[in-house]
Amino acid sequence: MEQVALEIPEVRILRPVKHGDHRGFFSETYNKRALREAGIDLDFVQDNQSLSAETGTVRGLHFQVAPHAQAKLLRVIRGAVFDVAVDLRWGSPSYGKHVSATVSAADWNQVFIPAGFAHGFCTLEPATEVLYKVTDYYAPQAEQGVLWNDPDLEISWPVGDDEAILSERDRGFPPLRELSRVFEYE
């Protein structure tokens, strides 16, 4: 499995090996041993899948707090997303900074986002489907978020404020400066 660390090295792009021939292809999209060898030794307990019908759909920036914090392993099975992870670990050298990458079915890549980060994405193609594994179960009482277009985060989203398709919940999240210390850097 190929892996590339982003500017915040805990967030990584992974590319599983894809074997193809005239019939199509085969790939191990998840292999616990290969991830452990890549330094990701976690137990994923739940798979989530989303479909976003329209280009410009923004989901995020979401996270769950302890004791239900989640690391995520995300891949796109149809279409493409502009994926963002924001470091929320108080005391981290990259606190309040973000990394972004394009994750797509065509590129056959995945992104690993550790616990302690807010996560979101914007669809780049219609009918985009995202599949992701998480390390803790969904816990609505632990779910929080950061405003997707918080100017202090300086995220260069591929869609403008007036074009983005969001849920009302995602529009109502607070900016980072109003967030309490939800994670500590270790």
Automatic annotation (TrEMBL):
Give the residues annotated as active site: H62, Y132
The protein here is known as: dTDP-4-dehydrorhamnose 3,5-epimerase
Enzyme type, top EC level: isomerase
The family database entries (PANTHER family) matched by this protein are listed as: DTDP-6-DEOXY-D-GLUCOSE-3,5 EPIMERASE (PTHR21047), THYMIDINE DIPHOSPHO-4-KETO-RHAMNOSE 3,5-EPIMERASE (PTHR21047:SF2)
Q: Which GO terms describe its biological process?
A: dTDP-rhamnose biosynthetic process; polysaccharide biosynthetic process
**Entries under SUPFAM superfamilies matching the protein:** RmlC-like cupins
The reaction(s) this protein catalyses: dTDP-4-dehydro-6-deoxy-alpha-D-glucose = dTDP-4-dehydro-beta-L-rhamnose
Pathway(s) where this gene product acts? Carbohydrate biosynthesis; dTDP-L-rhamnose biosynthesis
Concerning its family, UniProt says: Belongs to the dTDP-4-dehydrorhamnose 3,5-epimerase family.
Q: What does this protein do?
A: Catalyzes the epimerization of the C3' and C5'positions of dTDP-6-deoxy-D-xylo-4-hexulose, forming dTDP-6-deoxy-L-lyxo-4-hexulose.
Q: Which UniProt keywords apply?
A: Isomerase
- Record keyword Isomerase present: yes
Which GO cellular component terms are attached?
A: cytosol
Outline the subunit composition: Homodimer.
Please indicate which superkingdom the organism of origin belongs to.
Bacteria
Q: Name one GO molecular function term.
A: dTDP-4-dehydrorhamnose 3,5-epimerase activity
Gene (name only): rfbC
